[in-house]
What does this fold into?
Amino acid sequence: MLIISNEIVKYGNALNSVAFRKFNAREMNLFFSIVSRMRDKGTKKVTFTFDELKELSKYKQHGSKFKEDLKSTYNKMISLNMWYDEGNVAGAWVLFTGFKLDFDKNEATISVNPELQPVLNKIASWTRFGLEQFANLRSTYAKTMFRLLKQYRVVGRREFSMEEFRALLDVPSSYRVNKIDERIIKPIKEELSPIFAGLSVRKKRGGRGGKVVGYVFTWKPEPKNKDDFKKSEYWEESNAINNIKNNPELTDNEKFRAIDKVKGRRLGVSAKLHSDLKNAKDLKNLMHNLLNKN
It folds into this structure.
């Protein structure tokens, strides 16, 4: 197996204005694995082996599923339009213009649209994060919000209007606020609270009746020189769990689920362990009281 160190994904902030509609988690991992290796390559074609892409994206499916996911990723990639608007002139381009899959050599060859080089080459303002951290997130909503918050990582605050939030996260039009809370905000909080210390999500209200008009995300700003390369597993897990335990915004159940996700185990295990420990302590206290009763 290839041994590949954690990659840094870095791209122009314009990419954060693109909604990754209908991408599943595996396809997002593949797309940003490609982005991580396309930076500063100019208009040169870049070739990836399938094993390299699997390793970069933490791909875990078996059989022919990988080839199907590559094709699906490409079909969705070519639908990603980068818009620009300069007053009287506006337009859109696709980011990648060439995508060749060679199933005899098990290789993928990709090229960037020359018109959009500033997204991956000579970047003026950028978003940066560790690919491994991104790939380990489960929810597509958490993956998207992770990128959007990383753009403001040293600021510690990001506001969204409801229209922007729905567009960027591809929220189904049928979702009302209660369902957004359950299906979108909850997994975002559970998966990103270990990464963004003190993460808080607040609703913005306005107009008659206090209608929800957007969301405000705040967290402890990251240092500008923060190391995005993965450190030891113990250091990474220890910090993540401390962020979870010290976040007053999370319910006990959300904390248990977040810890399960950090440790990569089945949801519900931490809650059961906590319950078993509490029951054991209660039993010990009961025995102590019975033995010491006059």
Summary: Strands lie at 8-12, 46-49, 81-85, 90-94, 96-102, 107-112, 126-130, 157-161, 200-206, 211-218.
